[in-house]
Amino acid sequence: MQQNYIEQRLSSKGFTSFIYMLTKTQTYKKELEPVIAASWFTISEATYVYASVTEVQESEKHLLVVRDGTEITVATDVNNLPLPHCLKVNKEHWKLLNIRCGNPFYCVGFIATITDALATAGIDIVIISSFSNDLILVMQQDLERAVEVLVGIGFRYLTSA
């Protein structure tokens, strides 16, 4: 049964579609090279945790507040703990990489390139896009490898010093 499915997918039509998608992927990655070369990232000094809460007080203190209709999630600096109305805090500590795109809004595949490179390296991430930045949270123990991956695909790392 599995063999028949694979044979069908690799039929002339399926194989042509696969080759087309592969070619398009290579094309957008090539087109992104100058955009990535013009982009940079920094690392926040803060260390973040995720918490489930029933109510948010002083939302300006938090990196992120998400209300999705079933729960309220807060990503906040560990220095803001303990949180009032907190149900649970995720045990992992996260570091924030702030990516500035060299051509925001007009970069097909920009996020895909970043997430693919980090996933290939086995790095778990949470990603948030704001108007001007792409914010990537990586577990604290993966920070050094994440920096190496981003530099390896062409990003400049700007230190605060």
Class per helix and strand makeup: alpha+beta
Q: Report the radius of gyration as a whole number of Å.
A: 20 Å
Low-pLDDT regions: none
Q: How many structural domains are formed by the residues?
A: 2
Largest sheet properties: 8 strands, mixed
Question: Based on the structure given, which CATH architecture of the largest domain is correct?
Answer: 2-Layer Sandwich
Number of strands: 8
Summary of the model, kept short:
34% of the residues lie in helices and 30% in strands.
Layout of SSEs?
Layout: H1 2-9, H2 12-37, E1 40-53, E2 64-67, E3 72-77, E4 86-89, E5 94-100, H3 110-120, E6 125-129, E7 134-139, H4 143-152, E8 156-157
Parallel strand pairs: 1-8
Antiparallel strand pairs: 1-3, 1-4, 1-5, 2-3, 5-7, 6-7
Salient structural properties:
161 residues; alpha+beta; VC0802-like; 2 domains; eight-stranded mixed sheet; 4 helices; 8 strands
Written account of the structure:
There is one protein chain. The protein is an alpha+beta fold and 161 residues long. The chain folds into two domains: 31-46 and 93-157, VC0802-like, CATH 3.30.2130; 48-89, no CATH class. It has four helices and eight strands. Strands 1, 2, 3, 4, 5, 6, 7 and 8 form an eight-stranded mixed beta sheet that branches. Strand 2 and strand 3 (72-77) form a beta hairpin. The N and C termini lie far apart (60 Å). The model has no long low-confidence stretch (mean pLDDT 88).
